[in-house]
Each structure stands twice: as structure tokens, then as C-alpha cells.
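Hi R.,

Here's the chain you asked about this morning:
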Amino acid sequence: MKVLVTGGTGFVGRPLLKRLIESQHEVVLLSRNSESAKNSLGLPVQIFAWDPEAAPPPKAAYEGIDAIVHLAGESIAAGRWSEAQKKKILNSRTLSTRNLLKGAVEAKAQLKVIVAASAIGIYGDRGNNVLSENSPQGIGFLADVCRAWEKESQYPGLESVRKVNLRIGIVLEQKGGALQKLLPIFKLGGGGPVGNGKQWMSWIHRSDLVEMILFSLTNENVTGLVNAVAPNPVTNAAFSRTLGTALNRPAFMPAPAIALKLAMGEMSELVLASQKVEAKKIQEAGFTFKFPKIQEALDDICKKKN
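And the predicted structure, written out as C-alpha cells:
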């Protein structure tokens, strides 16, 4: 397949590009800074410059394209959620999706599949409820962003194209995401549960997420909304204990919820919200997780050299 990718220089995008090339796919990358992407990636990919919020990509980028993987978006943990930052987070997802798909329609791209990122934030804070793709959506800023994000994926003119919206959980790997901030704290023995520790964390090892994206591209049984999480969510307290064990460090220093709310403001939702999300749909489609349980995932990640 010839695959057009956005967000290819990011935390998930970089290993995805490598796996696409290893799997004999031809890759076209859209990037804000094409020269910088070319120098940093060092991969045999064709790169086009694109400002995702300004306009559709150049028509030449769609030439011969069979599939799109859309991962681009401002990090939700990049800074405190001021009104300006919230607008930036929203626009980076909605406008980029609209422009990307508008460009596909205008270029008359003969697409077979579109795999677009979303997030489990759409479910909101749901306590002990088990959440499937059919569960009611939640309330709050992240839920609002995900709703608008997924809506933009239904751009008119692409109704015949198979679409997959991956509702991605907490992505785990050493150099990026949540663990990049947690590992130094835990290595010093200062880690522990957040809030009361009872909130559910629905996570996925980054390598499993990359494989799930590849699986979604090539497997026609995968369609619509898909929870991109490991099949065994854990409470925050269990996650903290397991990470401490993997690092051979204590993990009993709690971070009170009120302190987090004062320090992080509305962004504290990222660590205090409870989301117990199931992975049945992707498993029933035939996907097999390499890291289905948190212990083996964290053991794999923590044994890697920095």
C-alpha cells in the first residue's frame, strides 16, 4: 500500500514509519517542516510540507495513495490548559482533519482506508464502569475535543472509504508519553499513587499500538470506532506498584488530588479521571497483543537502556 501519514515525527509516528517501511509499504509524510523531518528521520519516505490548520496538503501528496494514517495533534500535556491552549489543542485536531480529508476529496484520491487517532478521553470520568465503543460519551474538555475530532473524520465525499477511529489510551514507552515524566520520579523512590489510586488506567504499550495501526490498515474487519487499549486496565495504585517493582524502587509516596488540581488546574483530569476501557472489538477482529498485562509491559520498557 501507499500510505499518507501525518504526525510521523511524533512519539507514535516515528516507530510507525519504520514498521510501515519494514512491511513493504510506500510512505508519504506530511510535516510542518519537511526539511527538518527529512534530516531527523533518515528514512526512505517522500515528504511534503503542510500547515495542517491553514489549508489542505498539496494535491501531489495524494498521488497514488491507498491509505491515510492521521496522528497529528498538539500534545494535551504540553502546558496548563489556558483558554488559548485549549483552543490550540482543539484546532490542531479538528482543522487538521478537515483540511486533510478535504484535500483527499479535491484530489480525487482513490482511498481504501483512513485510520485516524482519537482518544479514550471521549468517555470522561466513569468510575468503575466498563467502557466499550458503544458506551455513552462523557463530559469535560477532553470529551468535547474527541467528539469534535471524530466528527471531522466523517468528511462528506468519503462515505465509501473504510474508516477507523482509534480511541487511544495511555501510551507507554520509555522516551515519551506519561512514562517519560514518571520514570525519573519513580527511579528516585518518589513515585506512588495519584489521588486515592482507585481510578482506572487504560493503557497500551507503544509497540502494540503501532502494530494495531498496521493491523487496522490491512484488515477489512476493522472498521468504525475502536478502543486502542490493552485488554487489562489497572487501577492507578496497581500501576504505581507495578512500575516500582519493575524499577526495584518503592512506590508509596501518594500525590493528593487537591495538590494536583492546584498545580495542574483542569489538566489534572489527565491523571485523576477513571476510565476502565475494554479491548474486545479489536481482539474479536483477530488482533493479538504482545503486551496484554501491565507487568510484562513495564518490565519490557524499564529494562531498556536509556
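The longest strand covers residues 113-119.

Let me know if you need anything else.
M.
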